[in-house]
Design a protein that fits this description.
mainly alpha; 14 helices
């Protein structure tokens, strides 16, 4: 990690100021240079880690074991989940979130940080280049590939630490304390991140609490996926509520806090990219928040950071809860066969 950060700093310092996007619909000239710098930094960080492990053990087991057959089969499905959900949210829903990293986090939790990072990187590259010219292509995805890598890495670390394991039948005092923490975190994220967005939509556009874009502007494919998504998320919310209240499962609280932490880290990395490369306009529902903060008096860089520190924790908290529901609902026999599955389930510790 130290080698990666140092390489990013040296590369950006040497490259100087990046040219912003000339139009919201065009790739900015600075994106090419920025991605080259970040790609080199990722390579430097990976090579540095591999060299250290080789010098210590004369093997690369911690990397190789994460890419077994099950993981390699899971990664393409995870990439498809990321792209379909992410593009649907950007196209069809009026929500200040992304939901484009469920597959990345799932792979990271079950297989490990390097597998999660690879899934995030490949997702963003495929989203822009492989799907270019299709309804699912996006020119805004690939400059944020380093953010996707960070999300996969953190998910792998949290999975290794057992954050995603179920913790049922908690003592009543710990359970009540966990409820207070969960209510405070979720309430704060909703109050400061979601409510202002829809309140201002009501004032400016008259679309009070409409979570879907005007139907005439949405293609049937994205509309169908959006409706299915909303139904699934409502079902997952119900499952998590029943798990939390019925089984006194504190695992929900652990995952919620971990998601918020991941969101803050992602925001700190993504905000400079959005500000300097895209001038704050990335074609998603979060652009409205950037404009809102600018109207309140913030400069571009501050407005983008404010938006990111709201949208990313909300997004990652929702995503972490979805992955937690998937991991705990799946067959334990199947989940445990992934490289990090037993640690994620809590059946192996230490």
């Amino acid at each position: 990690m130290a080698a990666l950060v140092a390489a990013v700093w040296v590369g950006i310092t040497a490259a100087g100021v990046f040219a912003p996007s000339p139009s919201p619909d065009q790739l900015p000239p600075g994106a090419d240079l920025l991605m080259f710098v970040l790609a080199v930094a990722l390579l430097v960080g990976f090579v540095a880690y591999a060299i250290v492990e080789w010098l210590q053990t004369r093997r690369l087991d911690s990397i190789a074991r994460q890419f077994d057959t099950r993981t390699i089969v899971l990664i393409p499905f995870a990439i498809a989940i990321n792209v379909v959900l992410g593009q649907t949210v950007a196209t069809a829903l009026k929500v200040p979130v992304y939901l484009d990293s469920i597959g990345t986090i799932l792979v990271g939790v079950l297989a490990g940080p390097f597998a999660g990072a690879a899934t995030g990187l490949l997702s963003n590259l495929a989203w822009t280049f492989l799907l270019a010219g299709t309804p699912f292509g996006s020119p805004f995805a690939w400059p944020f590939a380093i953010v996707a890598v960070e999300i996969g890495l953190l998910a792998g670390v949290f999975g290794y630490a057992g954050v995603f394991r179920s913790r049922p039948d908690a003592p009543i005092e710990r359970f009540l304390a966990g409820l207070v923490v969960a209510a405070a975190v979720l309430g704060g994220l909703v109050w400061y991140g979601i409510v202002p967005h829809f309140r201002d939509l009501c004032a400016d556009q008259g679309g009070c609490f409409d979570v879907v874009q005007p139907l005439g502007s949405i293609s049937p494919v994205f509309l169908a996926v959006a409706i299915v998504m909303l139904g699934l998320f409502l079902a997952i919310a119900l499952i998590l509520a029943l798990r939390l209240l019925g089984r006194r499962d504190l695992g929900v609280v652990y995952v919620l806090v971990a998601g918020a932490i991941c969101g803050v880290v992602s925001a700190l990395i993504a905000a400079p990219i959005a500000a300097y490369v895209f001038a704050g306009v990335t074609g998603s529902g979060t652009d409205f928040l950037v404009l809102l903060f600018q109207r309140a008096g913030s400069d571009l860089q501050t407005a983008v950071l404010q938006q990111s520190l709201i949208s990313d924790p909300i997004d990652k908290t929702i995503t972490y809860l979805v992955v937690f529901a998937l991991v705990t609902a799946a067959s334990r026999r199947v989940t445990a066969r992934f490289p990090q599955g037993e640690r994620a389930l809590g059946t192996v510790r230490g």
